[in-house]
Amino acid sequence: MPELIAVITITLLAVISPGPDFAMVTRNSLMLSRRAGVLTALGIGLGVLVHVTYTLVGVGLLIQQSLWLFNAIKLIGAVYLVYLGVKMLRAKPAGALADSVVAPLSDAAALRTGFLTNALNPKTTVFIVSLFMQVVRPDTPLAVQIGYGAFISVAHMAWFTLVALCFSAGVVRDRLLAVRHWIDRAFGGLLVGFGVLLAVARGSR
To answer: Which of 17, 23, 31, 128 could form a disulfide bond with 51, CB atoms 3.0-4.6 angstroms apart?
Structure first.
């Protein structure tokens, strides 16, 4: 029971802390649609399963012990975030283009964006590996550990779906879309900032 409470508490605190996932869901909900935001949230939850899977099969221990491998993951994640951020920073004012400034995302693209944003997020790598190595006991049954992983994934989906629903609400969205190019640039700047911070902090875990 103490282990379960620890997993739930740490997961909830980690999920609601600001990061690339929050920026991406918020941006897609505001700039695109509620559907795009929710699908991005679902993709984030699926991305969590990548971290859970390699941790359960033992690769997480390798990542924890190998600094170069961890830094390689961080660098890949940093490059992806900077790439997304630069695309957003290039957003133009509504008057400069036709009415639909932001190109729509297909359902698969929205899901993929959320998935990659989380799967390449070293913050989630640190969280999952640390949780299973430090909190979950070695003698905890595999079925229970899989249950923990499923809970972490569902918690991400639930939280970010709530974020998507809030930021795609009519009143909020209508007011903010008037300055949508600035919103896009702001979130682009955040993602570039996250990416740069990850790239610079290569020696720490």
So the answer is: 128
The pLDDT tens digits for 82-101 are: 776 777 676 555 444 334 44
In a domain, 38, yes or no: yes
Tokens of 104: 């729509």
Q: Classify residue 205: in a domain, yes or no.
A: no
Residues sharing a CB contact under 8 Å with residue 158, sequence separation 6 or more, in sequence order? none
Q: Which long-range contacts (CB under 8 A, 24 or more apart) does 89-97 make?
A: 89/184, 89/185, 89/188, 89/189, 89/192, 90/188, 91/180, 91/181, 91/184, 91/185, 91/188, 92/181, 93/181, 94/180, 94/181
Give a yes or no: residue 168 inside a domain: yes
CA distance 59 to 65: 10
User: Which of 165, 171, 128, 181 shows the shortest CA–CA distance to 42?
Assistant: 165
pLDDT value for 99: 43
